[in-house]
Amino acid sequence: MVRSLASRSLVVCLSFALAARAQAQRTIDLDAATIIELNAAFDAGTLTAEQLVKRYLARIAAYDAHGPRIHALIALNGRAIETARALDAERKSKGRRSLLHGIPIVLKDNYNTRDLPTTGGSVLLDGYIPSRDAFLVQRLRDAGAIILAKVNMSEFASSGAYSSLGGQTLNPHNLAYSPSGSSGGTGASIAAAFAQFGLGTDTGGSIRGPATVNGIVALKPTHGLLSRSGIIPLALSFDTGGPMSRSVTDIAIALGLLTGADPADSATRKSDGHAERDYAKYLQANALKGARIGIARDFTGFDTDVDWIVESSLAAMRRAGATIVEVRFPTWMLNAKGAWYTAIRFPEFPAQIAEYLKDTPSTYPKSLAEMIERARAMQSLSVSSDSTPTTPNASRWAKFVNELASGTTDDYRYRSVRDHALPMMRDVVNGMLASNQLDAIVYPTQSVKPERIDAPENTTAPDAMNIANLTGFPDLIVPAGFSDNRLPIGISFLGPAWSEPKLLALGYAFEQITHARRRPANVPALAGEGIFVK
Predict the structure, then answer these.
(1) Counting Cβ atoms within 10 Å, is residue 50 exposed (0-12), middle (13-18) or buried (19+)?
(2) Which of 207, 237, 238, 308 has its CA 20 to 30 A from that of 466?
(3) Phi, psi (5° rounding) for residue 12?
(4) Residues pairing with 476 in the sheet
(5) Active site annotation includes 247
(6) What are phi and psi of 228, to 5 degrees?
């Protein structure tokens, strides 16, 4: 009898203890946890980097190579778990290096990595492993981030979300739809929660298109804020790397650890006096109160679903205290900007890709002309160096020919746009912002809702995204809602050069009042992947 009472007392005590512990902890979905919350779990001892890596690897195994086969990855890092264990030990003995200590990430496959192939998604660079990391990759490693994988992309960062080496990546929200390009592999990976955040690159919308159609957050930063050394170039006048994540918080944390002058990239000299190491301090939930936001009406009126989301977003901003101002870009600028973009983008690629290829072994092509010659010899299905099936990429390879025939950077057509049209565009956008006393201009990141992979290209809807490239200005994308075909729609916050602090504040406030991101239907949570946080 005494023993029975003692046993009952022990059970009651244990029940109270477990209940108290349950109240002291909360479970966060892996795909909703921010870097701040992951660090809280690390500090509380409820999570290790090794456990976090294994949870992400389990999702990759379930949904990329199997299940819906998102097909976002090109190369998986076989040493990720080993690296995580070492970082766990370092955290115990020395403390964390930064908030990215032990955080798993993915990289678009145009970032040089000294331990994984860097191919640009092309069979033409199959198996190429650079001798050193890209500047931004080294920054991430130094901060303690763990590279889980290199991910698929539009081949050499142009055309659709398809590459000869990686094939077609699918949108995890709807497998019949594209994740957009050129950072489609990063966008799909982050939406599907294959890593905490990733890096993409943007020359004409290549971070922002995948962000909006995959329903994630992303930043195309001011040109020169982030180094481009060690990234396969497309057109350096416009190229920039940028973070892609599931929250504005993670964008701000990652950005602060990526900035800084790079002697190998002269464009980063422009960031002196502007770059910061802590952007998270600007995340204010009430940042929309008193803000003046311009709505670019040039990019609405082309899709009922998109327009509904835009108007709902503007209403939410007004309720949060923002003043909304109607603005329009000059018609002549909108009519000319596509030609101006091509006048810079096409002539730069042949010279800049040849410069990049100088560092590759002799077995790889050394010029765009040689790339064309080798591509023309690839007329059927084949396999890569790691036995992955490869296919021709006629649409991208055909563009090689146009790029090669586009003239040189000494051509008057190139110089006139570089020296006159681009400065004029900066003056126009700065003038619109200043004359209306705007903190930012917002617009639907894409004027029409996402389309199926097999749909013909929509050439009638206007594209706002290359305004940020032509001016060099920053552009933050935040999820805003969903279309009637259950595909995400994003909204862009465009500001003047070096306005990342203001854009992040506005985007964070908008995110907190709308909570428009959701888990893609084809990649549900796996058992036991939740994060316990005190």
Answers:
(1) buried
(2) 308
(3) -60, -45
(4) 219, 493
(5) no
(6) -115, 5
Between β-strands 475-482 and 488-494, what pairing exists: parallel, antiparallel or unpaired? antiparallel
Cβ neighbourhood burial of 263 (10 Å; 0-12, 13-18, 19+): exposed
Instruction: Check residue 418 and report its DSSP letter.
Output: I
d(C-alpha 126, C-alpha 107), whole Å: 17
Kindly give, in sequence order, each residue whose CB lies less than 8 Å from that of residue 414, ignoring residues fewer than 6 positions away: 343, 344, 347, 407, 408
pLDDT (mean) for 400-411: 97
The strand ranges marked E within 223-274 are: 240-245
For the question of residue 182 being annotated catalytic, the response is yes
Please state, in angstroms and rounded to a whole number, the distance separating the CA atoms of residues 413 and 347.
Answer: 10
Contacts of 205 (CB under 8 A, 6+ apart): 463, 465, 466, 469
**Structure tokens, 461:** 């809807």
Out of 178, 180, 206, 271, which one is annotated catalytic? 206
Question: Is the pLDDT higher at 5 or at 456?
Answer: 456
What are 469-506's pLDDT values in tens digits? 999 999 999 999 999 989 999 999 999 999 999 999 99
Over residues 437-449, mean pLDDT: 98
- Reply yes or no on whether 150 is catalytic: no
Mean pLDDT of the chain: 94
Q: Residue 18: pLDDT above 50?
A: no
Res. 426 pLDDT band, cuts 50 70 90: very high
Q: Which of 164, 169, 78 is nearest to 120 (CA)?
A: 164
- Of the residues 98, 108, 229, 337, only one is catalytic, namely 108
CA distances from 356 to 125, 231, 361 (A): 12, 9, 11
Q: Which CATH superfamily is domain 55-525 in?
A: Amidase signature (AS) domain (3.90.1300.10)
Residue 281: count other Cβ atoms within 10 Å of its Cβ. Answer: 12
The dihedral through the CA atoms of 37, 38, 42, 44 has a sign that is positive
Q: Which two tokens stand for residue 145?
A: 């981030």
CB 246 within 8 A of CB 468: no
User: How far is residue 211's CA from residue 532's CA, in Å, rounded to a whole number?
Assistant: 28
C-beta separation of 515 from 217 below 8 A = no
Beta-ladder partners of 168: 162
**Which residue from 174, 305, 198, 235 is spatially nearest to 472, judged by alpha carbons?**
235
Active-site residue among 122, 163, 180, 182? 182
Angle (CA) 144 145 146, round 5° = 120
- What tokens were used for 384? 């890569």
Give the integer Cα–Cα distance in Å for 44 and 52: 14
Q: Among 13-22, 67-76, 226-235, 430-439, which is the least confidently predicted range?
A: 13-22
